[in-house]
Amino acid sequence: MKLRKYILPRCFGDLIAFLFIIGILPFGYWFEVFLVLPSMYPLTSVWYIMHSTFATFLLINITSNFVYMVLMDTSIQGELMPSTPISPTWKFCAVCETVTPPRSWHCSICNICILKRDHHCQFAGCCVGHLNQRYFFYFLAYLAIGTVYALYFNTFFLFQYTKFSALSFIKFTFPLAIFLLGIDYSIEHCYTLFYVINLLGMLSAVFLLYYHGSSMTKGLVMYENSHNIFDYDSGSLKENIKQVFGDRWYVTWVSPFIQSKLPSDGINWVSKKKEK
User: Does the predicted model carry a pTM greater than 0.85?
Assistant: First the structure.
């Protein structure tokens, strides 16, 4: 495993997003398992045990995939590059002072070229590329499932404390502003604030999962998707999935600890244009 030397985010915006995600995940788990679920099921009931077990499974996979995504170094650092471009698809990076392979781009925040760079993730404080795209995708997938799952229970939980009125609508629409302005510090309003965070998190996770899932199945990264570049699309859904999840793609969803060898080294790519 190739690990990053600098784990913490390099800019203030990334640091805030990073701290938010590592704080909201354990808090959300505690809120659901030790506050919401006990209000609906007895602690010794089969339903409570089943839901809390599933919630634990989701938390483990969300956090472990997030950790793998952050730790994995998917940059060109340590990779042996030629002294001159091999083909027109290779380019010279003036910042890194080296020739870089196709599908790699320089990240101004990470300050290095990334192999098969997809994008820079603010919440992780690092780039998503060849070696950690699998973990980013599963982080998104389990986060989407978890937020949908939590929203279902939180809706019933919130209704126990909500009285429908114009004021309650305003509090639901601007929960953070109501809290920061000191208008309402009640525990009921804190539940509303967390519900809105849950709702926004769910919408974001589901949208991003759809977008990145669509790109992945076409064999594209974000730059290629936005510029309609299909040079590295294998034409096979299975092969495109393997490019991200490896040869054991069918079991990688269980845990990030399962090893699955990628078919490419992230440096040498077969282009459709080259084959023509």
Answer: yes
Query: How does DSSP classify residue 33?
Result: I
Antiparallel, parallel or unpaired: β 98-100 and 126-128 = unpaired
Site of tokens 């890194």: 96
**Residue 126 catalytic?**
no
**What are the backbone dihedrals phi and psi of residue 109, each rounded to the nearest 5 degrees, phi first?**
-85, -50
Contact 125, 13 (CB under 8 A): no
CA–CA gap between residue 101 and residue 233 (Å, rounded) = 17
SS3 label, residue 264: coil
Q: Which of 107, 110, 113, 121 is catalytic?
A: 121
d(CA 7, CA 126): 8
CB atoms within 10 A of CB 228: 7
CA dihedral 176, 182, 186, 192 (to 10 degrees): -10
Query: Which candidate, 255, 113, 140, places its Cα nearest to that of 204?
Result: 140
184 φ, ψ (degrees, to nearest 5): -150, 115
Tokens of 66: 């997030």
pLDDT tens, the chain, 276 aa long: 788 888 899 999 999 999 999 999 999 999 999 999 999 999 999 999 999 999 999 999 999 999 999 999 999 998 888 888 888 889 999 999 999 999 999 999 999 999 999 999 999 999 999 999 999 999 999 999 999 999 999 999 988 876 666 666 676 676 777 776 666 667 777 888 899 999 999 999 999 999 999 999 999 999 999 999 999 998 899 999 999 999 999 999 999 999 999 999 999 998 876 544
